[in-house]
Structure to design on (413 residues):
């Protein structure tokens, strides 16, 4: 479900940037028209963003920054592209090295470090290739994926929109696979924005979730149509990933059966293409479990979570954030199962004189039993990994910490 902190990406599968934040993406010797709104810094410094929801931000209207960015792209397109030199070729080799190392860091769950290397790569590419090159668009897109993994969907959305603007300027709208991938990533950013909004707390928040998830589905369907035209493989991994993403969105909307239909389509194709042991297969199994949990099929959900945990643990090891997310999901499933068992015990116990005497009418002892011991085990593991790998200010860390504190309160009761 939405509370399970699932972070989607292509492998397992962006609140708008301020001008100051944008400079960290566009470093280097840029054309003069960019200098009006981007000041260059020599060194990249990671920045933190307030994770508070900004309900006033509209996804219908372009931001002031994007207006400036679009105008700058158009103005620069009228000038001559930069000439390549031997020095530039050598620099591009360095950029490629930065990017390759960043990809490895992403696989290890070291997203903030990867973001810094992508930034170094982008700085070189801008100098050597100019700002309207597809490699520049690709690197900016990669940076957006890293921001998604850091649970910064508003930053990520703005980043993906920059990448998309370049592809569209190059005539790639609806004609390039990389354009479609970026559209899919925009859908993921919208999806994560929706996922981070608490459900059923106010009508305004529920309306925001409905709006964001509909926008995400529209992006996914747009990308899907491009993949169907440009990619003739059957099965196709990009189409499988789109179906996976649509399943995520239906989970957030509470449409669990529709989510299952999409996940099972994705799983069937991924098994044919990638095999049983690929982490992307494990992640789709994890999200199938999310749907089953939403349908109240807790034991079946736990079975799928365990299969997912085995797959991703083999690939990433036990201290990877993606693995910790499955531990978190298992903790929630065991919590739900334990609460259901506790209600049954309480209903039976309320008929007992000794229960009423020692525990009082209706007293729940949900913190006892094997299911809650299992919940605690998975919860502690998830918290330890989140805190050490993602930092104490990451949403996953804070939610796991709150859950542990609630567990201690329950024990003291």
């Amino acid at each position: 479900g939405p509370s399970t902190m699932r972070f989607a990406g292509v492998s397992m599968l962006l609140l708008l940037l301020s001008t100051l934040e944008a400079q960290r993406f566009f470093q280097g010797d840029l054309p003069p028209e960019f200098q009006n709104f981007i000041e260059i810094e020599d060194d990249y410094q990671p920045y933190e963003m307030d994770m508070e929801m900004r309900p006033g931000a509209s996804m219908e209207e372009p931001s002031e920054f994007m207006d400036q960015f679009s105008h700058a792209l158009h103005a620069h397109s009228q000038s001559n592209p930069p000439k390549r030199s031997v020095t530039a070729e050598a620099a591009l080799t360095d950029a490629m090295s930065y990017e390759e190392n960043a990809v490895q860091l992403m696989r290890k769950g070291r997203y903030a470090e990867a973001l810094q290397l992508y930034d170094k790569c982008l700085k070189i590419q801008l100098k050597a290739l100019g700002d309207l090159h597809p490699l520049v668009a690709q690197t900016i897109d990669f940076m957006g994926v890293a921001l998604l993994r850091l649970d910064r969907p508003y930053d990520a959305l703005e980043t993906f929109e920059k990448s998309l603007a370049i592809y569209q300027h190059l005539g790639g709208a609806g004609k390039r696979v990389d354009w479609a991938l970026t559209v899919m990533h925009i859908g993921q950013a919208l999806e994560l924005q929706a996922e981070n909004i608490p459900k059923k707390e106010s009508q305004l928040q529920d309306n925001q979730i409905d709006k964001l998830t509909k926008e995400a589905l529209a992006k996914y369907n747009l990308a899907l149509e491009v993949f169907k035209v440009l990619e003739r493989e059957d099965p196709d991994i990009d189409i499988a990933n789109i179906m996976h993403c649509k399943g995520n969105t239906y989970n957030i909307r509470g449409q669990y059966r529709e989510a299952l239909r999409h996940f099972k389509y994705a799983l069937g194709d991924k098994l044919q293409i990638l095999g049983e042991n690929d982490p992307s297969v494990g992640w789709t199994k994890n999200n199938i479990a999310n749907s089953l949990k939403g349908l109240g099929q807790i034991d079946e959900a736990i079975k799928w979570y365990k299969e997912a945990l085995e797959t991703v643990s083999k690939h990433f090891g036990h201290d990877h954030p993606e693995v910790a997310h499955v531990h978190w999901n298992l903790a929630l499933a065991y919590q739900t199962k334990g609460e259901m068992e506790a209600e049954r015990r309480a209903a039976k116990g309320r008929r007992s004189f000794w229960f009423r005497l020692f525990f009082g009418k209706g007293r729940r002892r949900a913190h006892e039993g094997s299911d809650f011991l299992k919940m605690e085990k998975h919860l502690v593991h998830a918290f330890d990994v989140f805190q050490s790998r993602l930092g104490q200010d990451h949403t996953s860390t804070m939610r796991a910490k709150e859950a542990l504190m609630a567990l201690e309160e329950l024990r003291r009761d």
